[in-house]
What we know:
The structure is a homodimer.
Chain A: H1 3-9, H2 16-25, E1 29-32, E2 37-39, E3 47-53, E4 56-61, E5 67-73, E6 92-95, E7 99-105, H3 106-115, H4 117-143, H5 146-163, E8 171-173, H6 178-185, H7 189-201, E9 206-208, E10 211-213, H8 217-223
Helix pairs in contact in A: 3-4, 4-5, 5-7, 5-8, 6-7
Chain B binds a DNA duplex through α7.
Amino acid sequence: xxxxxxxxxxxxxxxxxxxxxxxxxxxxxxxxxxxxxxxxxxxxxxxxxxxxxxxxxxxxxxxxxxxxxxxxxxxxxxxxxxxxxxxxxxxxxxxxxxxxxxxxxxxxxxxxxxxxxxxxxxxxxxxxxxxxxxxxxxxxxxxxxxxxxxxxxxxxxxxxxxxxxxxxxxxxxxxxxxxxxxxxxxxxxxxxxxxxxxxxxxxxxxxxxxxxxxxxxxxxxxxxxxxxxxxxxxxxxxx
Amino acid sequence: xxxxxxxxxxxxxxxxxxxxxxxxxxxxxxxxxxxxxxxxxxxxxxxxxxxxxxxxxxxxxxxxxxxxxxxxxxxxxxxxxxxxxxxxxxxxxxxxxxxxxxxxxxxxxxxxxxxxxxxxxxxxxxxxxxxxxxxxxxxxxxxxxxxxxxxxxxxxxxxxxxxxxxxxxxxxxxxxxxxxxxxxxxxxxxxxxxxxxxxxxxxxxxxxxxxxxxxxxxxxxxxxxxxxxxxxxxxxxxx
DNA sequence: CGATAGTTTGATATCCTTCAAAACCTGTGG
DNA sequence: CCACAGGTTTTGAAGGATATCAAACTATCG
Lengths: 239, 239
């Protein structure tokens, strides 16, 4: 099942027609290898990307070479629906794993949002959620120490993966190096490493072959004081 | 002149009719005192707020009482145009100074975006810029040390104030306590204080009675390696 | 002119970084 | 199936940036 349908379905009821329209968006699908950039800072955005399989990420590289990751895109996530309004990208979009990506011409987006108010609303919702996630990341970096910063991110990713049916029990794919985690959370890879060790010692997580296992999701949520309201999962209330 | 007209005008040419429509949005204006909350986390958003005078800010308070500020709204800024799609606010919106605020019912927004594609695009643009600013804040907190973190924020605020005609020469109102700066940048007020002292010693800034003066804007931009492309000031290219 | 919020100061603690090396994977080619 | 290469993880020691705490000072406003 198309992960975008699944995601939007967690906000609103989609008609069969809606579903079909989304399905049609995914007609121009291409496969790419991990590490590839879909679009780079400075380029003019012409297409809207819909991620169908794999993970992507938004990032910026500073003049001194430091990288900051500003978002993860999971299956079902769209890069900004209206991105084509801008003249130039202010950041890059790259792939963290091998991925399947649908490229959507802007006309398709405009058609849909004009003709299908229900879908337009649903896409709006997903944009608002993306922004809310970004705000929560700011809270995370700004106010939590390294340990809980990582733990909170894991909790979020678990819920988001679950939302599109990709959290198998308490495990999910997590194609992130410790370096990438550091660049996401404003930490060094070394410190991320030490915190992960502590999290493993305390039985909060287990990791193996690019997958994260969370033995006790409730406990993780409790310890990170996770408040899922920023994910706006209206219908399938999580906790 | 209505600051929203001025702001959107820096993205696209507005027709007289567009201008008038925006002007009409500001028919329901109310004045409020500093410190007041326009809307609180958990409440259902019904109105879209347009800030006409003064400063507002988005913030969250964590269970342990820590506050994180996630955005500043300057005159001409709208709180999320489509916020009413959500069932509950995931953060609060408060006033940093006495302010004049226009409350816009959602119908008005929907009417405008449906009937005036040009305005719809312009509003889209402003949403995209807000998001880009948020991303840059993440970079700021994640990758810059305290000194440049503050300096970079000042540079951004200068440009944004200038954009709506509120930077008088090299000075502008900055109704922020050092506490608020700390809560914005993930620092303590004490550390903010010491960094500000250093910035003054080095002649980078001067402060008095709630106003910030930047003797040499170019120098500030240079030292912070400020890249204004995230503000997407297409037309009036700044530097 | 006093009350209150905001700023400044100093001393000390700590979290996180830095640097550098070793150990460990994973995939690839022989 | 082994060996090697490159990326990733792990370890240790030492340094630095920022936090914490508490008190004094200074604006500002009614």
